[in-house]
Amino acid sequence: MAERFALLQGRLGPLLDGPATTVVVPSITLHPDELRKIPGAVHFEERLLFELARLRAPRARVVYVTSRPVDPDTVESALAVTGTTGARDRLTLIDCGDASARPLADKILDRTDVLARITAARGDYLVTYTTTTSERDLSVRLGLPLFGCDPRLRGIGDKSGGRRLLRAAGVPVPDGYEGLASAAAVTDALTGLKHRHRNLERAVVKLNDSFAGAGNAVFSYAGAPAGDGLAGWVADRLPERLAVPGDTWAGFLAKLAEMGGVVERFHTGPAMGSPSVQLEIRPGGDVRMLSTHDQVLGGPAGLTFVGCAFPAHPAYRSRIGRLALRVGDRLAAAGVLGQLSVDFLADRHDPARTYGLEVNLRMGGATAPFLFAHALLRGRYDPATGDYVTAHGPRHYLAGDRILVDRLRGARPGAVLDLVAGRRLAYDPATGTGVVLYALGALAEFGKLGMIAIADSAAAARSLYDRTVTVLAGMP
What we know:
Blueprint lengths: L1 H8 L11 E5 L6 H5 L24 E6 L5 H10 L9 E5 L8 H6 L2 H9 L4 E4 L4 H10 L16 H10 L7 E5 L2 H14 L5 E6 L8 E5 L9 H12 E2 L5 H11 L1 E5 L6 E2 L1 E8 L3 E13 L5 E7 L6 H18 L3 E10 L6 E7 L6 H11 L2 E3 L4 E4 L2 E2 L1 E9 L8 H10 L11 E5 L4 H4 L1 E8 L2 H16 L3
Parallel strand pairs: 1-2, 1-4, 2-3
Antiparallel strand pairs: 5-9, 6-7, 6-9, 7-8, 10-14, 11-12, 11-14, 12-13, 13-19, 14-15, 16-17, 17-18, 19-21, 20-21
Helix pairs in contact: 1-6, 8-9
């Protein structure tokens, strides 16, 4: 299978910039326990509807495959956002009729009828959200090259491999340990960190193959003894002290043994941000910077991705951009393809406190907001300044696709879109500001949706975002 996949990949280059037929399979292939932590994870398949922007090319076609049908109003909204309403006849929608939490690629591989429908659409290449062996096998079954990372290279971008890669690229990483696969190894790592940093209050334990911070846990050193008794104290308290959101200690330990993990020093401070850089690597090794963002983190431990702000803070956006391109060059040399992100910690006041955290060899949480906004604004990202330049001037936005509003449970996407438009909050091309809603499939069951609030400043984007959430919360 790997050899057949490599042969297919050799055809990819000329297809990306021509009037091709793109087959979009937004498959999220992760450990099932990690997926269960995300309410309505199956609806994240709508994140990739920004790919409809490819229909702007006159002869281009898009085949979009999902687990269950996408609401027609959501489709029409995505066509309007991407400026492709007139190309509806060149969009083919296919669904599996299966709302289970299984990865979409696996559902398709098990369904000869769905495979036949995709094959009949005569695609040129495949785009997926994650690129595991399941997506690779789907690529081979369909006979389509995949614009994504060969799964044989995934170890470069898991948490342990990412730390090694960052160091090799000259990017500082938080003090810590990688390649851990047992409670004993975690105990030794936590003990070693505390011995080196006597005032350390917390450390982070991360599963190698986790998503949006859902596999991150925090260990508190509160009350820790000094000296030789520390290791025993850590070992005794691991099951109760390691905060594992949405998991048990036994479950976390089993996944650690299966996929490995890392332990890192927990850096905090009022000026510390959590920015990320989005890159794209094209065939031939061309590395492009797409954007920078400040990640908005939440959850019980404050480590879960819940949204992002564009662009990253001016105090460090150029610095993290340069560091990310170093990483991108190494990834390109290793043969990595597709869209990816590099996550950082960065202090606004102290450049020395800039650390690389993770390398994600897949689309990140900030990818969809940027590409939806890019399709709508039709401007350009300026890597030199980090600004997004439009006819109306630079634009900022605040985005989140985990907005939960209880009153929206059972609401139809069309009704919510109409409400926002009726309150004059929807994006207005005359001013280059307003709100874009996306990922609306989880409204009915969870009252959950995504939103991008676009304005001419960070403060105005925040105000618009908050006003829209208030309006949604009051929907009759």
